[in-house]
Amino acid sequence: MTIIVTGGAGFIGSNFVFHMLNKYPDYRIVCLDCLTYAGNLSTLEPVMDNPNFRFVKESITDREAVYKLFEEEKPDMVVNFAAESHVDRSIENPEVFLDTNIKGTAVLMDACRKYGIKRYHQVSTDEVYGDLPLDRPDLFFTEETPIHTSSPYSSSKAAADLLVLAYHRTYGLPVSISRCSNNYGPYHFPEKLIPLMIANALNDKPLPVYGEGLNVRDWLYVEDHCKAIDLIIHNGRVGEVYNVGGHNEKTNIEIVKIICKELGKPESLITHVADRKGHDMRYAIDPTKIHNELGWLPETKFEDGIKKTIKWYLENKEWWETIISGEYQNYYEKMYAHREEI
Ligand code: NAD
Ligand code: TYD
User: Fold this and answer.
1) CA 56 to CA 69: how far, in whole Å?
2) Which one of 154, 224, 298, 307 counts the least CB within 10 Å of its CB?
3) Which residue ranges in the chain fall short of pLDDT 50?
4) How many helices (H) and strands (E) does the chain have?
């Protein structure tokens, strides 16, 4: 079995590469990643010498390079993690989101059509459903919830999902889609809420909470997400969408306070800054379908997952310190300079 994993040098993709190489010693895993600011080859160092692993530095938008790779590897499956993934960046500059997230998906699926494939899996997001109101805790996203996006990021992901379903209906491509909630865990790029707050707190820097911090996210430990995708690509039904997440809802301010407590840092580091434009209020997944069909449930409680995550960031300072001292520093200064304290 040969699987092309795109975006495998990023947060979730790298965790998935490790999961698959560990669990299936007879599988060949080929990582296709063009190493944007979010891709980090050092993350993949532990598997670089594994004879069952190959890294290829190309973009999923480069048709020629993608076709060449398919010709060489003749993959049985493709799992597409490659994407521009940060909402705030999409608000500043949507274009690259359209290129990678939509066009890149089409190129990969065209290659699947041309060379044949057992399964094309699209890693999507619950953000395609838009948001839920805070005063309706009884509401959850199901696979039937209408697509209703808020940001250029989520719109580009929704467009890709529709394209994936269209390739299934029109060309009979054997596809599946997973829509998961916010992941956290090792190798999470420090521009996202949890790793950003851990890194800032450890450096005694202000902890910039957007607005009141009452927005709710449904946090999923990354290993649980990898297990869900593993189940879907092997046992999930073709042409289906599976929501992944569930019952780990927390407000942003709760998260930041937990991080302060775990690190023994004062809550006085918290600063409330200008809110994100179009900020989604609440995400919450109903995982009934994947539970009933595939037996999946999130295994890691938030209290345990956040401890493991913090421990990882403490033990792997070099990984994130290298990132925040490099080009990312310019991004941070630019993005947070215009977020005035409120
Ligand atoms: P990430 O930003 O950490 O990593 C993205 C990876 O894709 C990087 O290694 C980057 O170099 C690579 N990449 C970007 N553009 C590429 C291109 N044109 N060609 C090849 N590689 C390219 O992202 P992540 O958080 O690991 O997210 C992975 C996937 O999961 C994305 O599709 C995202 O939409 C989805 N998702 C993420 C979350 C989350 O909480 N992080 C939640 C739901 C869905
Ligand atoms: P993020 O990690 O960017 O994920 P997403 O926008 O895809 O949910 O943000 C999670 C939540 O945290 C979101 O409500 C925005 C908020 N947030 C802050 O309050 N401060 C920050 O510095 C960041 C990066 C996010």
Assistant:
1) 9
2) 307
3) none
4) 13, 13
If we measure between CA atoms, which residue out of 292, 188, 213, 190 comes closest to residue 246? 292
Q: Does ligand 2 have an atom closer than 6 angstroms to the CB of 37?
A: no
Q: Where do the structural domains in the chain lie, given as residue ranges?
A: 2-184+222-244
Tokens of 17: 């590469």
Measured from the Cα of 127, ligand 1's closest atom is 43
The vertex-124 CA angle with 122 and 125, nearest 5°, equals 170
Look-up of token digits 């580091």: 269
CATH 3.40.50.720, domain 2-184+222-244, yes or no:
yes
Dist. CA 312–CA 33, nearest whole Å:
24
| Tens-place pLDDT, residues 176-227 | 999 999 999 999 999 999 999 999 999 999 999 999 999 999 999 999 999 9
- pTM of the entire structure? 0.97
Structure tokens at 180: 């998961």
- pLDDT computed for residue 333 by the predictor: 81
Both tokens of residue 3? Answer: 């699987």
Query: Does the C-beta of 208 come closer than 6 Å to ligand 2?
Result: yes
- CA gap 285, 178 in Å, rounded: 12
The answer to whether the CB of 215 is under 6 A from ligand 2 is: yes
Cβ atoms within 10 Å, residue 179: 24
pLDDT of residue 342: 82
